[in-house]
Design brief:
Keywords: 4Fe-4S, Electron transport, Iron, Iron-sulfur, Metal-binding, Transport. By secondary structure, the protein is α+β, with helices and mostly antiparallel strands. It is about 20% helix and about 20% strand. It contains 2 helices and 4 strands; from the N terminus they run E-H-E-E-H-E. The protein has helices at about 15-20, 50-60, and strands spanning about 5, 25, 35, 65-70. The strands form 2 sheets. Strands 1-4 form a two-stranded antiparallel sheet. Strands 2-3 form a two-stranded antiparallel sheet. A hairpin with a 5-residue loop joins strand 2 (about 25) and strand 3. It is globular and about 25 Å long. The relative contact order is 0.32. The chain binds FE3-S4 cluster (F3S). FE3-S4 cluster (F3S) binds near residues 15, 33 and 62. The site of FE3-S4 cluster has 14 residues, from helix 1.
């Protein structure tokens, strides 16, 4: 299982992640990306059928703002 969240401090609202993984990433009012699954907490397991999309988003983000781990993220880790 994998977990993901977006570092909104470095996201530049480029829009690549939502194109790569439209079922996982959406954009807030400022166009910054967040994970829909858990309101960007990084604590929800990515459904298996979306894992490849998440890896594509990870590779495509120009600012390395897409974070992926095999463990759930906790606030202290971010
Ligand atoms: Fe932001 Fe990277 Fe997505 S810059 S909009 S997290 S591809």
């Amino acid at each position: 299982a994998i977990y993901t969240y977006v570092d909104k401090e470095t996201c530049i609202a480029c829009g690549a992640c939502g194109a790569a993984a439209p079922d996982v990433y959406d954009y807030d009012d400022e166009g910054l990306s967040y994970v829909m699954l858990d309101n960007n907490n990084g604590t929800a397991t990515v459904p298996e059928e979306y894992e490849d999309d998440v890896y594509d988003a990870y590779e495509g983000c120009p600012t390395d703002s897409i974070k992926i781990s095999s463990n759930a993220f906790y606030k202290a880790m971010k």
